[in-house]
Amino acid sequence: MLAPLQGLSVTQMPVGEIPATLYRPAAGGPAPVVVIAHGFAGSRRMMEPFATTLAQAGFIAVTFDFPGHGGNPTPLAGGLSDDAAAAGVLMAALGRVVEAARPLGDGRFALLGHSMAGDIVTRWAIAHPGAEATVGLSLFAKGATPDLPRNLLVIVGAWEPEILQAEARRLVGMAAPGGVVEENVTYGDPATGRARRLVLADGVEHIGVIYARESLEAARAWLNAAFGRSAAGLVDARGPWIGVLLGGLVLLAWPLSRLLPRVEPLAQGGGLPWRRFWVVALLPAVLTPLVLRVVPTHALPLLLGDYLAAHCALYGVLTAALLWRLGAPRPRWPGRPGGAALAAAALAGFAILGIGLAIDRFALAFVPAPHRAWLVPVLLCGTLPWFAADEWAARGPGAARLAYPATKALFLLSLVGAVALDPPRLFFLVIIVPVMLVFLLVFGLLSRWAFRATGSPWPAAAANALALAWAIAATFPVVP
Fold it and tell me: What's the domain of life for this entry (predicted)?
């Protein structure tokens, strides 16, 4: 995974309070600059595959953290309630980075953005026609015309929603005869600035499109054509290797879990059979989005993170209340409190220091910046009730078969239901549902192995709740 960095000079180049990273060939001369922007809840680390691939081809690439994201301490004004204010802040930050980066090259520059940033780089390129080319991944582009932005490449994952694919065809159709668009066909001449092209990256969704080799090669070829270049070089192939690394770490947890101390001589848990358990599983999934539709959830300066924490907290309270109402065995203090605390600390340490640091190094920012650290214990107050109630409900002698995956599937469906009830405010939660699915699959395995070793649901509940609070604090945008 380190091969794409060979032969490159990678340096930090903060633009005021905006963290930014510069990638360029170690022995290269003047070249066009490509400013690369991340999407909602992303960071510059997430966009590194494009930076290294383009720098290997001789470009000068710059990634950065938008306000409210990653390590940028400036809150994202406007949030989702004021699109004009938020877009203005994001475009201003992009403009500052372009202004700082452009003199580092030969004077020519291009823009590349994913998701939220696809719209931002497109808007900026329309307002500042000096950009020679724009690459938009999984974007909605307001204000685009047949002439602007110049030389637009649109890349969408083949597994992404039809609404994004339709938007991609609309944008490229402005240059296609009759508006009929075929994949991988260039319409117009890059020399005139009116070229457009659609690429559907096979087998990937909204996040995977960033790591797809097809996306990286298409962006490189497009920018080469726009700038009259032909250099190639290594393509950042970390995508599959990230999966191998994380899969290996998860599998390593299986033998390590056997070292956890036994907390209970007999396994503990609610142990409800399906004839009673389905009520505990289903009602919170239905009621939580309905209640939160009318209850304010803007308690934290964390865009959508506050809602997700509130969703977890209410979900957990409702689950616990139903367990009590149905007469499930009452939760009790662990038989060996010290062993439970040790097991929880070991699980949390493995999740955050093992899996988390690997994610932070190769995928996205997972270590909260200093100005975000205080959010972790606050968010834990929301995530802990859900994991604690859910672990108790799904574990124990006589527990319904497949109870654990059933509650996780219903939780995700509950989030989708919340989005359906309030799309303007919660739409971006749809983006994290696939990520949440992976999170719950991975930490579900850790929970299963921990429960078998300890006999108690509490260590996994505490560790998983902390890991989710940590991830939300590190990634969701900070707002005023």
Answer: Bacteria
Q: Is residue 87 part of a domain?
A: yes
**Domain end (from 173, 205, 236):** 236
79 and 156, same domain (yes or no): yes
pTM of the model: 0.93
Judgement on whether residues 156 and 40 belong to the same structural domain of the protein: yes
Q: For residues 417 and 427, is the Cβ–Cβ distance under 8 A?
A: no
Residues 151 and 290 in one domain: no
| SS3 assignment for 134-169 | EEEECCCCCCCCCCCCCCEEEEEECCCCHHHHHHHH
User: Taking phi first (over 0 means left), then psi (-120 to 50 degrees means alpha), and beta for anything else, what does residue 302 get?
Assistant: beta
Q: Rounded to 5 degrees, what are φ and ψ at 154? A: -115, 125
Amino acid at 70: G
Per-residue tokens: 135: 């690459």
DSSP string, 206-230: TTHHHH-HHHHHHHHHHHHHHHT--
**Can you read off the two tokens belonging to residue 427?**
């739409």
Sheet holding 152-157, edge to edge: 8-12, 20-25, 60-64, 33-37, 109-114, 133-137, 152-157, 196-201
Domain boundary at 186, 218, 236, which?
Answer: 236
Q: Which secondary structure element, helix H or strand E, spans residue 75, and what is its range?
A: none
- Beta strands 20-25 and 8-12: pairing type? antiparallel
Do 227 and 254 lie in a common domain? no
User: 416 with 272, same domain?
Assistant: yes
The predicted-structure confidence for 307-341, as pLDDT tens digits, reads as follows 999 999 999 999 999 999 998 998 988 999 999 99
pLDDT digits (tens, 9 = 90+) for 13-37: 999 999 999 999 998 789 999 999 9
Cβ–Cβ under 8 Å, residues 154 and 139: yes
